[in-house]
Amino acid sequence: MPRRTPHFALDTVRTPRRFHGFLKTASVCVLITGLLSPFSPAVAAEARPAATAANDYCGGRCSDILPPGENGNATLAQILLNQAFGTQPDHAEDQLGPYADLAKGYPALTDDKVNAFFDDASFGVPADQVASTEKPAGRGDVTIVRDKKTGVPHITGTTRYGTEFGAGYAAAEDRLWLMDVFRHVGRGQLTSFAGGAPANQGLEQQFYRNAPYTEADLQAQIDNAVANNGARGQQALADVNAYLAGVNAYIDASDSGRYFPGEYVLTGHKDAITNAGTIEHFKVTDLVALASVVGSLFGSGGGGEVNNALSLLAAQAKYGVEEGTRVWESFRERNDPEAVLTVHDGRSFPYATKPDSPQGEALPDAGSVTQEPLVYDRTGSAATTAARSAATTAAKTTLSSARRGMSNALVVSGEHTASGHPVAVFGPQTGYFAPQLLLLQEIQGPGISARGASFAGLSMYVELGRGQDYAWSATTSGQDIIDTYAVELCQDDHHYLYHGTCTAMDQVERKNAWKPTVADGTAAGSYTMRVWRTEYGPVQYRATVGGKKVAYTTLRSSYLHEADSIIGFQMLNDPGFVKGPQDFQQAAQHINYTFNWFYADSRHTAYYNSGDNPVRASGVDAEFPVWARPAYEWRNWDPATNTAEYTPPSAHPNSIDQDYYISWNNKQAEDYTAAPWGEGSVHRGNLLEDRVKKLAASGGVTRAALTKAMADAALADLRAEDVLPKLLKVIDSAQVTDPATATAVSELRAWVSAGARRTETSAGSKTYADADAIRILDAWWPLLVKAEFEPGLGSDLYTAFTGNLPVDEAPSAGHGPTGAHAGSSFQYGWWSYVDKDIRAVLGEPVRGPLAQKYCGGGSLSGCRDVLLGTLKQAAGMTAAQVYPGDDQCSAGDQWCADSIAQRPLGGIKHYRISWQNRPTYQQVVEFTSHR
């Protein structure tokens, strides 16, 4: 199958990677000679150190890591050296090696070796580890100390303003270019800023389609968040303004000192010789634009209602309404009884469940759906085939419910640990970029005491990390906070009925133009992005319903509210607020992103699922479009503010001191329906559940043991571990007579017996153990799924279902929602369908079965023939056919096809590492005492 690299939005951003031919080594050397200005304004380490903080209750048992490195800024000279000779700026890559080494080092891991693969996350910096100390902008109320090992900033302020000023200054020191890129992404202005490469076009289109905000909209978000949150709202605004002052102070200092990021030169914003040009100061609305990107990527579950309707109609067209609906529901797996759960104590949390008698459904007439155009008036390179293809991919990504699920968590209560204290291994899986989207920091000041990771440009608080005696983290949850409404058109295509009145749609647009630069040689071009907005959200599709012309709009509860979550993060950083699990849950309730939040201190563990879950009108089915009429609106919905009645905190999955928690974007609890498909009997969450459940049952869990469980799951092939044994059981029902097929079966069985891992023969070998078995399964899976299901479903319905849920997401696959070289794998795929169908054919019990048996028409012998036929075909495929090569790898290079690449978002490049399916930023924590 052809691979497209990559699919995930941020993988595609085009910033300095390749330079024009004149930038050869000789020219590079000449340029470097003239550009060797100071790389950093930091002062040499003073004799007096920053002692380890007395407010640290972790006892040296808090660790973390964030590859590739803390330093995400590089001067022009450093970029040119990296491009020409591969040299790295200090602390740009020093966390990549330890992170990669865990893949082969974890089997021998002990508690005393954890920090061979992680960094010490204790508060403060020991005396002999202080690398530099600075007083940003000469302020006397804040100090930034950086440690020798990783260069992480440890910010200590004596005033709240100074503390936040320092946080902004340090963030700009480490991520200024990245912050600038993403404030432009959030505004739909990336191409005008960084160049018109097709990938950049697609990226800005994706976010503008989802959040087409005006400057007034962005400002209103800040105003409302402040006005609605009393003293904490006022403090948040003061913190943001201080943070921005720090960012802008660094911009001014680096500009005058000529040590600003070199990408500004390469993209034409600054002149390397005269220093002409401007780096624009940041303002409050820039941070809202940044927050809209983060919220859209990682914290806005839902959508896909039109695609759901299309597959339902396809099922009904094949089987009739009643049977077609039954078939559709069996594949949807809204509340599969075999799904792995985070809250497994038997409690039910009904949300977005199927109503007994659906009301207000507005299913489209067959063949009437068309996607709403976004891009108009294309000129130059905006009109190329590549540009149009990027636009198609961006639209598909935005409108799908199969959003990139991120992150995992393993938390074990003290009852089951060796020390009697809870142990947690958790973190966000945010992809791999250079520089990384997240940055590390420690912040100590009045009302703030935390260390951990934050998204660049939003680091006025630690967003995932540890406090004085507690730690917290999150995974993407994906519950449905997005609904699709059918607005009936009147007068023309840009007027609609709103509460009986013909109302004009609101047109917003963004005009972008670009020209070639050193960083991006894409020819000049331009276009206009145009969105039509209604009270029910932006228009995404056009169709007819019962012959009436409609526009389908999408409305999400976090629309116009991305800034609201700042209050929850402020609370998590406040040691005066968080003193136990209940306080943690209360803080998480103030975060409207759809996340699963986890907590551990020395005595307790806790979990809470966040997000503004709208209370839907009685009878509304969240799976499908509904009419835009008062009877079907969210309860107490106010279109002027896009606020509504939300389900109370007690209705969100939550727990304190469960024996253990796992999460890998799986189902949260019984009866809690998530928007993405695929939460069935086999999910990547099972890889954690099986391991952690066994550990907890045995007792004596340590930091090393829980880390090993995570690392082992990170190398597991979900299909091989949980589905392949059942496929082999069907094949073993009779003797395999074909020699080539028998050899393939033997290799697959040996791989399963060895643990079904995708792991190197030895560290750095770049060759997999069981390489042939891995090649066979990678080739076999898409073939067997199609042969198993398409004959029974028919090509139309099979194609429609693959639109709802991709068939596969192997590490090397460019056809899954994650794209290639991104690490995260096995979230979306048909493994649950295959598992349930094969067990049914074998006559084994299946809870929540598919509506029919599909493999071989339900016959064991027929199914076996299907499996053997496709297996023989797969075994005969060469490595070059299975791994056809891409911009990173040559055809047939299996290890490289799986490998993780740090996608450049700036001018610095890094080496590839062996595949692991684990969080990008990760903590290993075990607090030994409490305040």
Overall structural class, as computed from helix and strand content, comes to alpha+beta
Percent of residues in helical segments?
Answer: 25-40%
| Uncertain runs | 1-51
Number of H- or I-type helical stretches:
26
First-residue to last-residue Cα separation: 57 Å
- Radius of gyration, taken over Cα atoms and rounded to an integer in Å: 27 Å
Mean pLDDT figure: 93
The dominant shape is globular
Please give the largest β-sheet.
Answer: 11 strands, mixed
Assess the beta-strand content as a share of residues.
Answer: 15-25%
Strands of the largest sheet, in order across it?
Answer: 1-4-5-6-13-14-15-16-24-25-27
Number of DSSP strand runs: 31
Question: Care to describe what's here?
Answer:
By secondary structure, the protein is α+β, with helices and mostly antiparallel strands. The strands form 5 sheets. The protein has an 11-stranded mixed sheet with strand order 1-4-5-6-13-14-15-16-24-25-27, covered by helices on one side. The protein has 26 helices and 31 strands.
Keywords:
ten-stranded mixed β-sheet; globular; alpha+beta; eleven-stranded mixed β-sheet; 26 helices; 17% strand; disordered N terminus; 931 residues
